[in-house]
Structures are given as structure tokens and as C-alpha cells.
Amino acid sequence: MRTPMPFASSPTLAAAVAVVLASWPSPLLAQRDARPELAVAESALAHGQMDRAVDLAREYTAHHQDDWRGWFVQGEATLRRGGTDNAYRVAAIIAFRHATRLAPERAEVWDGYGRAGLELGNADGELILHEAYEKVLALDPLYPNALENWLKAYRKRDDRERLRAILAGSDSIPEVRARIARLLIEDEQYAAANRILDSLLEQDPRQPEWLALRGQSALEDGDTIIGSFLYGRALVNADRPGGEMLWQQAVGVATPAEIRAWEAGIPEGFRSGFLRSFWARRNPDLFSGINKRIAEHFARLRVARREFQATHPLASYKNRRLTRALSARASLAEQIFYQRCEAREVPGGPAHLADQARDFGLPLLAPSAPLIMASDTSSFARALAGGRGALNAGIEPPGQLPVDPESLSFWAMIDLPYGRDIRDVDTTAAAMGYNLRTGLDDRGLTYLRFGPPRKRTIGSTNAVDAFCQLPDLERWQYDDIGTVRFFRPEAVSVGAIAFSGTTGEQVFRPMNEPEFQAMEQAMTRNATSVPARLSFGVWTAQFAGAESGRTDIVVVTTRGAAAAQLVGPVGEMAPPREDSGGIVILEARPGWYVLMANAKVADTLGRQGLHFLVHRLGGERGVSDLLLSPTWGDTTTTRGAMLGRLQRDLTFSAGTTLRAYAELYGLKPGADGYARYRASYQIYRSGDLARDARQDSLAGGVRLAFERLRAPTGDRIVEWLDITPGEIPPGRYLLRLEVLTPDGEQRVGRAQMGFEVRAGP
Description:
single chain; alpha+beta; 5-stranded mixed sheet; 4-stranded antiparallel sheet; 28 helices; 38% helix; disordered N terminus
């Protein structure tokens, strides 16, 4: 039978724990031999038998109240067993607190106390977290996860100063000095942080954590040259111990997929490649020679940390799935606030057509509520419209809506139309990833990801209705993602209906579909502020590379100079390549990449990126992509000659003779040194090139078929054809090349390309 844990009712957890500890029986009960009984409890804990471990530990501490080990096992087992309410967290905290009083010199008991506080969350959990891990760090400044857990609580300058003073007692240890520098960076004391980090780098110039922090300090302080150089060195050395710091710095702009990949475990030796790929995919200007996105990230981080720090990072809304699920959807009071204060600029005037379409007089119910058709609906409509009905009489203060108690049953069941909430988005990073790991609230995360909004509106624009005069609403407008809405749910309430606190700060709170879509972008994407206004097209062609197992990728921009880069998920990548003529040749092994292509005309930049599959070409039978250019007199046709004459926009004047070029692989020559095959060129007029390219066969068109006898050039055969003007009048076309074996039974490969012929020169 389990021994019930004593619990005293008290306004705060701290008071409850104090009462329990003060009322514990004294003098102690008679002691028995401690070791055998404790060993059994420890064994149950080690084997995951949590119920048994809790019972044995309680039995043990009932007779050995002065043995810290028993309390520690009891707290650990209670915490690991968990439960459906807060009781197990409180019980674990009480047990660990006993252990800390009996063995204050043991770091592990303070660590258990801190972990229980972290599990408890909210304000009481933050107090416990600070106390526990400051004790741990004073006893052992390198205790595993101690600093990381301390950083999860809300902290201000005084807290950082206090911790730096604690760590200063062990500043002969290089790792401790680096932690002091990290706290100095948070306080924007960059010169002091730099002195510490520079001295450390003299000892080990390749230590990635120190390089990353020194780079961050420089970049936050505006020194982009030194900062970019040092951060680049940190990325190169990220596979060494300490490389985890670079992920901690980057996680705030990671996508859910990137977070899942990191958490799944990057294979040994690939962490540097993963992180360099992470930043390369975000490079806003391939012409610049440095990745401006890294400098931009830390400049944003400085502002976000100062202006939008999470003041309640341990709120249960952010850290517990059940609490988040229960309060993720906007409450009735919030929805009424939206309808009165935002959907209508002033009472009686709809602001958006989508809101105008709603019937405010018809109650829409929560999923489990019965349908109500009552005269209360008219009063409800008046309340929404800001009329002088009984429901909204005497509003004070703002955000509080008095309601006739007789109608509370009606209000408890009624709901408003918009039903989507944050649970509809991939919340891999949203729940415990971004806020807890960055120390930023949802506004800070949005700022870190997208920079300052084009327009930031604080409070409601409805200046007529006193109910609307709250500063707890913000709407950030971005040109590319729309309006992101933030709201503090506790700011409003309706009558006697009490809404329990969930966040204590402004959180993502979309109230219509466009705002929901903007929130989804803000949670899962990120973007640079470097402008890219140039419109351009980009197309590619793939050929077997000179080195076996590698493929050459021709990247062509339709205007301006070109810069391009292929970025893989992990591993090595080539730096960006530039070409003033708009044609860049990259090489890579087969697989999926992100192809980044930039174009530039004068000082105007254009930017595109797409997922890109590099094919395996060469060795086995196959056909490269096609190239098209105006023909020339020499019949000696090579890839280089074609690239030098490409029509980059794939647009030709009527009457131009076109030369099509492809390479064939894997065709074996006969005894006479020649390879035999069939080449079929098909030209189709097309109104939708993307659609037609996906079709295996198309009707109509012009077909040109040839029996070929050609000698290989090295490991490939050059296939080319001049297409005369009479066969291609003005219009858009799909050119398709099919290569078959001599008997026509087997397909060697297919290549196709779209182009346009225009009338006139």
C-alpha cells in the first residue's frame, strides 16, 4: 500500500513546500540498516519499475529520514513516473528539497530539484530552476546540462550578473570563462566578452564554441568582416567538441524538418556539413562573397533578445501538450474582442468582406454543445455590435465585459465561427523548440525569422469602444506573408466566466484564415531582408561529368550575370560560381539538392531557389538534356561550342535555323568503331509546356526520324540536328528527342526542352 504524500494548502508552491518540511516528524524514527532496502529501490528505478521504486523509496524514507539518498531516489522515481496532474511534480519537489537540506554539497540533488522545477513550470518552477542550478553551478560549474537548464528560465541583467559572479569562482577553467563570455554577450558587453574569447582562442584557435561565440559577439556589435570570418571557421570545425553551440545559435530560424533531422542525430563527421548547408540554403546574395544572412541573423537576434524576450518561458501553454491543446484555440472572450474591435473598425462597420459575411446574430456552438435557439441571440448580436444592451453596460476596465448572470449558460455554450488554431500547424518546433531554446516570445521568433515588419500596429484601431482599448494586441504586416497577429489571452474576459492564465505574454493568435496562413509562415519559414527585385527565368541541363560518378549541371539565367550553387543536406558543397555571361556550370554527385540561382543587372539582384535532382549520367545507357542554339556553318559540334552560342531566354526569331544538341551514354560501338541507334525528334505546338512535358505521348506535331551511325567521342556520342525554319513557324513548342536501339525495341533515353519562336527579327 502506498504511503500518501503530505500536502498543505497554500497560496504558492513555495509556501506549501515550506509547510510540509516544517511539519515533518521530529525526532527521527528509529533507523534501520539503510543499504539493502535502498539498493532494492535503486534497482527498481534502474529497471524502470517506477511504481515499485516510489513505494520502496517512501517506505525507506519513512524509517530513514536523514538519508539524502532515499529522498533522492524517491524524487527521481516520482518525477519519472509522472502523472495526470501537478501532484506528482509537487511530490517530487518535496522529496528533492529534503535531499538538498540533508546533502547541500551534492550537485545531483540540486539537479533533481531543478529538473522537477522545470517539469512544474510557470513562475514557481522558474524560482526553483534559478535556485537549483545556481547551486549546481557553484558546486560544479561544468555539471551536465546545468547551464542549459538555467537558461530556460526567464532571466534579466541582474540574474546574469549573479550567475557570472558564481562562475567567476572557477574562471581558471577555460570552459567556464567561455560561459561567462556568453552571458556578457547577452548583456551586450561585447568588448569584455571579446577579451575573454580572444584569450581562449590563443589556447585553441579551432575550438568551435569559442569561435562561434566570438563570431556572434562581433556580428551583434556590427563588425561583419571579423564576425563572418570567425563564424565561418566555427562552421568548418563544428565536428569537434563544442560544435553544439552553433545549433543553439541557429535553432530559432530552423524549419521543423531541420529540427527533426538534428534531433534524430547527425552522423559523426557530418555536423559541420549539416550546419554549413543550413546557412548556405539561406544565402541571400551569391555574388557577395560572404553569406550576409549570418550577419543579418545576429543583428536581428540582438534586437529580438532586447525587445521580445520570453517573460514566461516555462508557461504550461508552451511546455505541456494538454494545456496547449486546451487553450490553443481562442476563447469566447478573445473572439468577441476580435469581432468588436478588429473585424469592425468602429461599431457597426465591417472591416473585411470575410467578416461581413458572418451572421453575428446566430450562435455557433462548441462541438459538444447542444443547439440553442433562444431570444438571447438578439442580445448577443447587440453585444458584438457595441450597442447599449444589458450585456455590455458599464464596461470597466477595457477588455472586461460584464454579463447578466442569468445568461451565463448561454455564453458558456456559444462559440464563434473561426475554428482553426495553432494545432493545425506542424508544431515540432513551436511547442518546446523555439521559445524555450531561444528565450524569445512569439514576436521575437517572428522578428528573428523575418526581420522588422513593414507596419507594426499596437492595440486596436477602434478608438470608440472602451472595451477595445488594450495594448495587448499587435499586428505585424509583411509584404510576403501578410499580417501576423499576436494577443495576450488573459487580457480579456466575459462576465463571471474566468479564463485561467495560460501564457502571461503575447502569443500567435490568428483570428481569420489570412492571419492563420501568415502565422504558419512565421512558424515554419524564414526570409532575408536583402532585397531581390529582379525578375528572371532560370533553366538547367545535365550532362555526364569528366569524373566518373559526377554530373555537370549547366545553369542558365535568362538575363543578367549569373551566380549559382548546389546545396546538399549534409557534407561538402562547392562554393557559389559566377559568370558575367549568365551561364554557370556546376558539378555534383547524383542526389537531391537545393539549387540556388541569382541574377544581377547593374545593382539589382534577383533570387530563386528550388529542390533539384541531379541525375546519374554516364556508364549506363542514357541521354543528356538538350541544348538549343542558332546554327553556325561548322558541322563540328561540341558542348562548349553550343554553350558559347546558347539563346539564354530560349526565344528565337522566325526563320532562324536551330541546332539541337544532346549526348548519348552507354552505346557500345561495333567492330567498325561506330555505334548504331535510332533518333526521333518530335516538335509539338504547346499551350502548356509543363503539362505537355509530363505526357508520355502527344498527338500531332512534326516527327523527324533518323537511323544513326556515329563514332563515339570518348565515353559519349554527340547527337545533333539542324532544324530548318520551315518546320517551326512562330509559337511555343516542346522539342522531344527519343533515342532507341537499332531494332527500335528498347528506349535508350528521352530528352525534351521548351522554346519559343517569335515573328520578326
